[in-house]
Amino acid sequence: MSRFKILLAVGGALLLLPSTEIHGANIRSGGEPSLYEQHLFKRQAAKQNDGQQTSGLYDENDSVISLTAGNLKERVFQQPHASLVEFYNSYCGFCRRYAPIWKQLASDILGWQKLVKVTALDCSQDENNAICREFEVMAYPTIRFFAPYYEDGAQKIGDAITAHAETEVINALIGHMHNVTQKPPGWPDFTPMIDNASKSELFATTESRTVPPKYAYIINENETNGTTVGSQIILDFIDTPSAVIKRTKDLTQPSGLRAIIRETMSEVPLPVDEFNREKLAAAIRRHLNEHHISVTEVSTKSTNKESSTDQNISEIMERKQEEALRAKVKELGPAVIYQADLEEALKFALYHEVTRFKKIDGERLLALQRFLNVLVRYFPFNENGIKFLKEVRQFVLNSEEGIDGDDFASNVKQIELNRASIFASNRWMGCASSKDGLRRYPCGLWTLFHYLTVQAAESEMSTDPLEVLQAMHGFIKYFFGCSDCSNHFQQMASRNKIWNVTSKDDAVLWLWASHNEVNRRLAGDATEDPEHPKIQFPPAEVCPLCRKTLLTNHHNHQQYTLDGGNEWDLLQVLAFLKNMYNFANRSPVGLQDDGILPQKMAYSGTGENFQTNRIFGNVLNEMDIRMGALLYVACIVMLLIAVKMVVKRGYRKKMYAHDILGKV
Ligand SMILES: Cc1cc2nc3c(=O)[nH]c(=O)nc-3n(C[C@H](O)[C@H](O)[C@H](O)COP(=O)(O)OP(=O)(O)OC[C@H]3O[C@@H](n4cnc5c(N)ncnc54)[C@H](O)[C@@H]3O)c2cc1C
Ligand SMILES: *[C@@H]1O[C@H](CO)[C@@H](O)[C@H](O)[C@H]1NC(C)=O
Ligand SMILES: *[C@@H]1O[C@H](CO)[C@@H](O)[C@H](O)[C@H]1NC(C)=O
Ligand SMILES: *[C@@H]1O[C@H](CO)[C@@H](O)[C@H](O)[C@H]1NC(C)=O
Ligand SMILES: *[C@@H]1O[C@H](CO)[C@@H](O)[C@H](O)[C@H]1NC(C)=O
Fold first, then answer.
1. What is the arithmetic mean of pLDDT over 99-123?
2. Ligand 1 neighbourhood includes 512 CB (under 6 angstroms)
3. Cα–Cα distance between 444 and 347 in angstroms, integer?
4. How far is the CA of 225 from the centre of ligand 3 (A)?
5. Span 333-601: which CATH code?
6. Which of the four CATH numbers 3.30.70.20, 3.40.50.1000, 2.40.440.10, 3.40.30.10 does domain 199-290 have?
7. 61 lines ligand 2 (CB under 6 A)
């Protein structure tokens, strides 16, 4: 018997015990908030007073200013400078890959910060949900330009910049800056000089400067398709009072740079080997240095640093608890799913993804209905939770004309509040990440849909093999904010013939194989959490029987083959998935306010709620039987331990699951 099986069996038993409780009474006791919740509230309150948001993909060491719902408008409306805002979502893989580019851009134009600020807002934060909807952020990342003195008002959502590459964003930015009509003090004059303008005119427009410039630098842009390099140099030397930069568009002369010295009105060409920002700026700097004028180098360190003050006790406690939970997840291994992740995914889907749209109608509304249908059928909630989902579905069904995302958010919240204690989770567990911005929601979404396909396959409720896949396809197409992922998924779905899946078991395997295809494509990518490499799932250590040495390829499924002289044993894979994504095998570890304490089982567990038919029912094989026996033994052992603990310690009201698990 391999160590893994024992581990899995014991783990399974741990999970089996409390989860049965879910079908019975409410899994959470009401009453006062737990110590942990109290800390959370405190922390949230502290965060709201704090202008600088430090979570997300950017921190205080970047030149990117993090905005929040509370300060976005304050910072971009009616300002004596322009703003670039990146609306992103920290779970979106593309945003993550994009973050270094945005940081680079911010640091490359940090010298322009009096005129334009580079900012970012994380739409995945709860408190930013409404503002992202208000600004009609439909895809991540969305980049918008806000001109100086930009006014608040209906449809005032900034000007979209669709480019992403740094140089293209800068070009677009300059284009917008050229067009600014309400110019704040110190705004440069970008208009090109008329050819052969007199040299003295060059200095005429600069009379208002406190220090009259001694040198003028003229950049000739001999380009028919437009270049912004001259304007970039103008901005680069905005803080150098000794120099005035001008651009010309003289097509009779080659592109180039020349200097004019005011004192003598003499003109010297400044050769550059390449006509770009770096070379031009260097040539000007060199010329100024030769004339003993030093140019203040712009620091690449951000100036908007704010000291972290709330490194207080509650955070330390929270971190300790978090660490203990992480350790538990590691110990339980990769073949375990968590109730917490399923709930977090559902919360995020309902409160962040669906609510992004100003109008949900037509196909999108239908997709939402289908999603809610499978949730009502298969989501692992207690009775209260299922009623919540049914009421949300009813609300959607009643809104034939379409729903405003705002209304959806407030109605769902109201339904949740009316029902109370719907969600028992407040953190990611199996989908937690070792670094900010990884895993979490997309991981939770995969987990949720795998879970739903398995539930459908194990249930008699529907005979439609496509029920869950269709709901998933619609949800990913119309609601998944990672548009990059959504597009890939739709292409893959048609390539892998999603609509030709003919049985519920095939649906389970279809999703598994397609997920592996995504894993293969993303392996080693920037979205990969080093602690959770993207592997072909399940790994051999976890399911040795799932892989067999390739003899004959009697399966006709191209997408199901594996590298390295192996092929999948699809029956084993199916059995494995059905076991892993089983209702009874969800782990309660990490749920808040542990109403589901094992000692409760000692009192109330009658055994009737045990979902034995589910776990041993459909996919009996040798391993399952052995595991079943082990589970049974482990259950008894657990019960004994639980009883013993209750006797020994007395009834402790707030005990975290890991306290107990830690004893085993
Ligand atoms: C529909 C969809 C499409 C996506 N497309 C893209 C994309 O195009 N580009 C991009 O950058 N990101 C994409 N993502 C995100 C990406 O796939 C991961 O979800 C994300 O990078 C987090 O990875 P992870 O390591 O947490 O594991 P995930 O891939 O999210 O997996 C979550 C969990 O599922 C289990 N699992 C893994 N593989 C399988 C399998 N084959 N069968 C059953 N269970 C499995 C494991 O327990 C794993 O921890 C997509 C996500 C979704 C939901
Ligand atoms: C910022 O940089 C300092 C100095 O390198 C470092 O100590 C600090 O941890 C960094 N902060 C973050 C959030 O990375
Ligand atoms: C700037 O104004 C010009 C002329 O009105 C217009 O053609 C151009 O598209 C504008 N550029 C941007 C970035 O808005
Ligand atoms: C136009 O712009 C591109 C990209 O910057 C550049 O390669 C090209 O030389 C420019 N000029 C013309 C006439 O296309
Ligand atoms: C998929 O189904 C369609 C319609 O039922 C059928 O015409 C097509 O041949 C099928 N394709 C495959 C590869 O099975």
1. 93
2. yes
3. 10
4. 14
5. 1.20.120.310
6. 3.40.30.10
7. yes
Instruction: Tell which atom from ligand 3 comes closest to the C-alpha of 178.
Output: 1
**Ligand 3 touching residue 586 (CB < 6 A):** no
Contact 585, 615 (CB under 8 A): yes
Task: Give CA–CA dist 627/543, Å, rounded.
Answer: 13
Which ligand lies nearest to the CA atom of residue 179 in the structure? 3
Work out which ligand 3 atom sits closest to the CA atom of 159.
14
Closest-CA residue, ligand 5 atom 1, reads 500
Q: Answer with the residue of higher pLDDT: 231 or 253.
A: 231
Cα 206 from Cα 257, distance rounded (Å)? 20
Is 361 or 649 the better-scoring residue by pLDDT?
A: 361
pTM of this prediction? 0.58
Query: What integer pLDDT is reported at residue 38 of this predicted model?
Result: 39
- Nearest ligand 3 atom to the CA of 145 is 13
> For residue 225, how far is its CA from the centre of ligand 4 (angstroms)?
6
What type of residue is 423?
F
Structure confidence at residue 291 as a pLDDT band (50, 70, 90): confident
What ranges do the domains of the chain cover?
1-32+621-664, 48-178, 199-290, 333-601
**191-200, 247-256, 464-473, 628-637: lowest mean pLDDT where?**
628-637
**Helix/strand number for the chain, H first, E second:** 23, 11
Distance CA 646, CA 595 (A): 15
Please give the number of the atom of ligand 4 that sits closest to the Cα of 225: 1
